[in-house]
Amino acid sequence: MKAAITVLPGDGIGPEVIVQASACLHGIAERFHHEFTLTEFPFGGAAIDSHADPLPDSTLKACREADAILLGAVGGPKWSVSQAPVRPEQGLLRLRRELGAFANLRPVAVHPALVDASTLKREVIEGVDLVFVRELTGGIYFGEKRRDARSASDLCTYTVAEVERIVRVAAQLARTRRRHLTSIDKSNVLETSRLWREVTERVMAQEFPDITLEHMLVDSAAMHLLRRPRDFDVLVTENMFGDILTDEAAMLAGSLGLLPSASLGHGRHGIYEPVHGSAPDIAGRGIANPYGAILSAAMLLRHSLKLEAEATALEAAVHAAFEAGVRTADMSCAGKSAATTAAAGAAVLSTLRRRG
Ligand code: IPM
Ligand code: MN
Q1: Helical pair 341-355 and 308-323, crossing angle rounded to 10 deg
Q2: CB-based contacts of 201: which residues, under 8 Å, 6+ apart?
Q3: Quick check: is 291 catalytic?
Q4: What residues are in contact with ligand 1 under a 6 Å CB criterion?
């Protein structure tokens, strides 16, 4: 097949991990005889520098026209000074919103070869296989913001329709898995959470009676994720809770650098990005973990291009690299020397080519 992929490397380690993920997409195209065109556009801080806008019109247009978007990371101290007129993160939020990418899928699975990479005990994390479905275009991220000399406020709003559509995405995903859905809210305090819980109850009872539904308060969920993570299958939650809990859940897998994500709307369009940020502290050193970006490319193959065999082949190649012990510094391999970003990418690519 032919596919046009818009690539937004962004800032910090974004470009470094995207080089590897792009190479893997080319590797897949070669092995399975597809024609993928990958075209890079300025985004985030890099675009503030070149276009005075974190999401220039030309970049947004290329995103709208593409079959899928592969994104690195945005942000950094250079653009995050307190009085900055515009921040890189605004470009990311606007892109999600403009493309209607309301459902953010963040799978967390503990690979057997990496059980010792986590700070948590083997008996707690072995066999963990869960997916967060984070609402991505609503809530406190997008509510009205106010600031005066003595106070500040961020408004959190959810509509019934916003809750319905995200719950449907999560429930449909649960249907392809272990049929268990955990909805996370703070309904003992927040009005938006009470609405969230009511709507979730109704949608699940009417449309998904075959899925077990459980509600959990967000503070309790934060604890149970560490106490008994294996019990979770699909978790659905609002924007801010999802942001926080997915960084926490990343530590089950061993490192934030391992986690991929897909941000989907209606239809096939999607934004694929690793969960990690731009990590300015290690940028430019060639040591960033490219696996989260590469696994995001696998999600792109699966969800936007509908190339399931190709997605599975790429994931298998990443798992082969794990099994061969190819670990970047963040995957903590005591005593062993860490692989560079390029070495980790090359390990994945060599498996792809060998099996071709
Ligand atoms: C993420 C990031 C973003 C978010 C930032 C960079 C705006 O942390 O994708 O999790 O908060 O959504
Ligand atoms: Mn985050």
Answers
A1: 120
A2: 213
A3: no
A4: 75, 89, 92, 243, 275, 277
Which homologous superfamily is 1-103+256-356 in? Isopropylmalate Dehydrogenase (3.40.718.10)
Nearest CA to ligand 1 atom 12: 243
Condensed to tens digits (0 to 9), the pLDDT of residues 66-99 reads 999 999 999 999 998 877 889 999 999 999 999 9
- What tokens does 63 get? 């995103």
Task: Give me the residue label for tokens 């926080």.
Answer: 244
pLDDT in tens, 144-183: 999 999 999 999 999 999 999 999 999 999 999 999 999 9
Secondary structure element (H or E) that encloses residue 125, with its range: helix 122-125
- pLDDT over threshold 70, residue 28: yes
Q: Which of 86, 92, 97 to mutate to test the pocket of ligand 1 (most atoms within 8 A of CB)?
A: 92
Q: Is 129 a catalytic residue?
A: no
Q: How far is it, in rounded angstroms, from Cα 184 to Cα 204? A: 14
Cα angle 214, 235, 230; round to 5: 85
Angle at 99 (CA atoms; ends 40, 295), nearest 5 degrees: 55
* Annotated catalytic residue 78: no
Atom 7 (ligand 1) nearest CA = 89
Separation between Cα atoms, residue 171 and residue 234, nearest integer Å: 8
- The DSSP letter of residue 338 is P
Q: What is the DSSP letter of 256?
A: G
Q: What is the pTM of this model?
A: 0.96
Pick from 297, 319, 322, 326: which is nearest to 310 by CA? 297
The per-residue pLDDT for range 257-269, each reduced to its tens digit, is 999 999 999 888 8
Active site residue 243: yes
How confident is residue 332, by pLDDT bands cut at 50, 70 and 90?
Answer: confident
H or E segment to which residue 7 belongs: strand 2-10
User: CATH says 119-253 is which class?
Assistant: alpha beta
Cα dihedral 118/124/129/135 (nearest 10):
-80
Sequence ranges of the chain with CATH classification 3.40.718.10: 1-103+256-356, 119-253
Q: What number of other Cβ atoms are within 10 A of residue 228's Cβ?
A: 11
